[in-house]
Amino acid sequence: PRLFSTRRLFLGGKNAIYLLILGTMFYAVMLHLPRNFKSREVVESYGPPPARIFCIISTYAYHHGHAAIHIHRTWVRHCDHYLFVSDDIDNHLEPAVFMNMPDKWHRMRAYLEYVYKYHFHQGDWFLYCNDDNFVVVDNLRHMLKTYSPKELIYFGCKLRTTNGLVFMLEGSGIVFSAAALKRFALTALTNESICSSETKGNDFTKELGRCLTNVNVIAGDSRDEFQRHRFLPFDADLHLGSSMNESLENHKYFLDHSYYPVNDMNLPVSLHSICFHVPYTLNIYDLYYFAYKTRIFGVPLNLGFENERMGLENKTA
User: Fold this and answer.
1) Rounded Cα–Cα distance for residues 107 and 256 (Å)
2) Which CATH fold would you assign to the domain 53-293?
3) How distant, in Å, are the alpha carbons of 56, 83, 265, 266 from that of 243?
4) Crossing angle of helices 104-119/204-214, nearest 10°?
5) What is the pLDDT of residues 190-208, one digit of tens each?
6) What is the mean pLDDT of the chain?
7) Does an H or E element contain 82, and which?
8) Which residues contact residue 34 at a Cβ distance below 8 angstroms, ignoring those fewer than 6 apart?
9) Residue 123 pLDDT exceeds 70
10) Which candidate in 70, 212, 221, 270 could, as Cys together with 217 as Cys, close a disulfide (CB 3.0–4.6 Å)?
11) Which residue range or ranges hold the Fringe-like glycosyltransferase domain (predicted)?
12) Span 253-302, pLDDT tens digits
């Protein structure tokens, strides 16, 4: 009892010195550790979670084996969730099938309504694109950091008609906020005077723009802080190594309708570009390699992203 008395333990000469030394060491360690833990807790607790992106890839039965399958193996796996939509079944792609819909506008209406009904809970933002697009999903997620999925807004390659109707170019990808998709499905599609169900052919994105404008969905500016374009109207090599030609019908259409001025037949391309057309589908593997796998010597790896990427590749394997 005398050996372990509190008087001897705390007031004895040698014990007091040992306790003082241990206490000082413990205090020094604790001063260092809580900072790291606290900073991590702050980031995890207060930092906004990354936007969940649901990707909708429009394809056709005759494209399954030589176009859509290559998207399935590459960039689409960086979406949080994805869905192929087609006119026929496929055991590998497992698309949602919509038969007997030759009109593009009817298909888009059906696709977006279906996604709202059955997949709305899986995304904050919804990307609609074609099976000949390449998308850098991480750049899209970065762009959307400054926006809320509760905003009535959508993005793409922005165009305008002569009478001022704003719409997005077909084939360059269109991104809807969750609020915009909900408003489109519940308010626009249910009112014929707001959103027509008639056939529109190649003008279907014009009707989409009209429908969204009528329900107060804003066409956002998808350019970066230097006013360089992230949703490109044509192939990447055209924008990076050549220029548009007004004698080509699709180039002239874009030049006549571009919402933003085009100088010297060229568009400034963002270093954080998001979506563009791929004329030869197998080039997707080259693009995917350089966008997601190539590392520059001397630049530190983002280990978090690298681990995530390896996990995706293991799933694929």
Assistant:
1) 27
2) Spore Coat Polysaccharide Biosynthesis Protein SpsA; Chain A (3.90.550)
3) 30, 34, 6, 5
4) 50
5) 999 999 999 999 999 999 9
6) 87
7) strand 81-86
8) none
9) yes
10) 212
11) 53-158
12) 999 999 999 999 999 999 999 999 999 989 999 999 999 988 888 877 65
Strand stretches in 118-269, DSSP E: 125-130, 133-135, 153-155, 158-160, 166-168, 174-177, 218-219, 231-235
Biggest alpha carbon–alpha carbon distance for the chain: 103
Torsion, Cα 216 222 228 233, to 10 degrees, reads: -90
Cβ atoms of residues 279 and 234 within 8 Å: no
Question: Is the four-CA dihedral 259, 263, 269, 270 of positive or negative sign?
Answer: negative
Residue with tokens 């497992």: 94
Q: Which amino acid is at 90?
A: D
Q: Which residue has the tokens 């681990």?
A: 307
Q: Which residue has the higher pLDDT, 32 or 161?
A: 161
Instruction: Tell me which amino acid residue 70 is.
Output: H
Q: How far apart are CA 255 and CA 262, in angstroms?
A: 7
For residue 208, give the amino acid letter. L
Output the six-digit token pair for 293: 């796998």
The residues with which 55 forms a beta bridge, in sequence order, are 82, 127
Among 242, 191, 239, 183, residue whose Cα is nearest residue 215 = 183
Per-domain residue ranges of the chain: 53-293
Burial of 96 (0-12, 13-18, 19+ CB in 10 A): middle
Inter-CA distances, 22 with 3, 19, 74, 271, 278, Å: 20, 5, 56, 54, 66
Residue given tokens 């990808």 in the structure block: 173
- How many Cβ atoms sit within 10 Å of the Cβ of residue 183? 19
What is the number of residues in the chain? 317
The pLDDT tens digits of the residues spanning 124-140 come to: 999 999 999 999 999 99
Helical (H) or strand (E) element with 55: strand 53-58
Structure tokens, 24: 């000082």
Closest CA to 57 of 36, 34, 77, 86: 86
Q: What's residue 296's pLDDT?
A: 84
Tokens of 97: 């099938």
